[in-house]
Amino acid sequence: MAKTTARATEPNADTDASATTTSEAAESADPAAATRWLSRDELAAWLANSAIMISLPAALDARMQREAQLTFFEYMVLSVLSEEPERTLRMSDLATRTSASLSRLSHVVGRLEKRELLERARIPGSGRRTVATLTETGYQVVVAAAPGHVKAVREYLIDELEPHDLAALRRIGTAVDAAINRAIRRR
After folding, report:
1. Beta strands, E only, the chain
2. Helix pair 102-114, 72-82: axis angle to 10 deg
3. What is the torsional sign of CA 37, 42, 47, 59?
4. CA–CA separation, 183 vs 107, rounded Å?
5. What is the CA radius of gyration of the chain?
6. Comparing C-alpha atoms, which of 137, 134, 138 is closest to residue 88?
C-alpha cells in the first residue's frame, strides 16, 4: 500500500518538467509508467472517500448488530423487501438492489430464513428463479430497527454536512453508480 500511495502522485504532479509524457509511457514496458497517477488533490479526495466506503459501513454494521441483532447487510435486505409490493422480490433483483452477488445474498437469506424473517419460494417454470418474501416477523424486525438506523445515518453522515454538501454527495453518488453500471454492462 505504501508504494501504491507513494506512487499515486508520481511523476511529480506539481511540475510538468518531470512528468512522463504519454508517448514515453506508451513506449515503456512498465505498466506503472503508463498509469495516469492521481494528483495530490485527487489523492486526498480518494482517501477521504475511502474512509467513507470502509468506515461508514463498518460503523453502521456494528451499531445495527448491537441495537437490532442484525448485520447492516441483513437490515438492507429486509428494508428493500419491506418497501416492495407484497414484500416480495426476485432474488436476482434483490441482489441488484443491495449491490450483492447472488452467492452472498443466498447465504444471508438462508440465515434470515432460519430466523423466520423471510421465506424463499421457487417461481414455476424453467430456470432457477426464486423470490424472497418478507414475513410478518421480518417486517416487525425491520420496522423496529429503522429508527436506530436513521439515527445512525444522521449522526455519522447527514447531520455533519451542509445542504450544498448533500447536493454534492448526491451528484457524486449518482455519477459513481452510473460509472460502475456502465463498466458492468461492458463485461
Report:
1. 88-90, 118-122, 130-134
2. 80
3. negative
4. 26
5. 22
6. 134
Cα–Cα distance between 156 and 147 in angstroms, integer?
14
Cell numbers representing residue 75 in the block: 437490515
Query: How would you write 133-175 as a 3-class SS string?
Result: EECHHHHHHHHHHHHHHHHHHHHHCHHHCCHHHHHHHHHHHHH
Nearest CA to 180 out of 99, 92, 80 is that of: 99
Q: Show pLDDT as tens, one digit a residue, over the chain (187 residues).
A: 444 554 455 554 444 434 444 545 455 578 888 899 999 999 999 999 998 999 999 999 999 999 999 999 999 999 999 999 999 999 999 999 999 999 999 999 999 999 999 999 998 877 778 999 999 999 999 999 999 999 999 999 999 999 999 999 999 999 998 998 899 889 8
Peptide bond into 85 cis (omega under 30): no
* Cα 171–Cα 96–Cα 83 angle in degrees, nearest 5: 85
Q: How many of the other CB atoms lie within 10 Å of CB of 93?
A: 13
**Which residue's entry shows cell 512498465?**
30
142, burial (CB in 10 Å: exposed 0-12, middle 13-18, buried 19+): buried
Distance CA 177, CA 97 (A): 12
